[in-house]
Amino acid sequence: MKIYGLIGYPLSHSFSKGFFAKKFEAENITDCLYDNFPIPAITEFPTLLHQQPHLNGLNVTIPYKEVIIPYLDGLNDAAARIGAVNCIRFEGGKKIGYNTDVIGFSNSIRPLILPHHTHALVLGTGGAAKAVMYALQEMNIAYTLVSRQATAEAIAYDALDQAVIEKHTVIINTTPLGMYPQVDAAPDIPYQYLTSRHLLYDLVYNPAVTLFLQRGVAQGAITKNGHDMLILQAEASWEIWNG
Questions:
Q1: Is 167 labeled as catalytic in the residue annotation?
Q2: Mind telling me which SUPFAM superfamilies this protein's record contains (predicted)?
Q3: Rounded to an integer, what distance in angstroms lies between the CA atom of residue 42 and that of residue 68?
Q4: Domain CATH for 45
Q5: Which of 13, 79, 89, 216 could bond to 99 as cystine, CB 3.0-4.6 Å?
Q6: pLDDT (tens digit, 9 = 90+) per residue, 156-179?
């Protein structure tokens, strides 16, 4: 039996286990198992490897996409440039990190990009944001990071005025704000300045329409959640593990 899984914490509402269970059933894959491995701290990763010596591949989610890197034996080029990992392949006794978030995000947002979508706001600065930034660079879309506090790399939410919102016609939420069960939360941006020229993309997929997206719809914006991104990144992980 080939064993795959997901590490992160918490994992009570993760997408991957259900996705792979359906995939294995639909494709009559009977020699593979995908399970959740919640670890409260990344320092428990070596213990997990000792307990699961037959792992063939892992996905990595919040909050470990960046701090997992020192525990790996190598990174592919994209993961090294992004600085975040969401997929681990076990090959020849070594643990190699990949980033399939960038594939999932790029391929899911690209059909929605219009000529005036030249500047983006990236809400959040974690591992998922790094994959989004990498993808935007590949699509030649300029971006500005937004964080709770201003830094050398990011502006603060309170700097988002009408001029900034009008210029940045793509707004991407990479934070967990609005994810079930905290469905009444949303990034603190001035939604009143959104228009039909805006594209709002939320990496959150549960609920399907977050408060962030609801407020975009109310202003006439194009909206998309992270469900397709998850499917695309999961399939990309499967190809990496079995390629």
A1: no
A2: Aminoacid dehydrogenase-like, N-terminal domain, NAD(P)-binding Rossmann-fold domains
A3: 7
A4: 3.40.50.10860
A5: 79
A6: 999 999 999 999 999 999 999 999
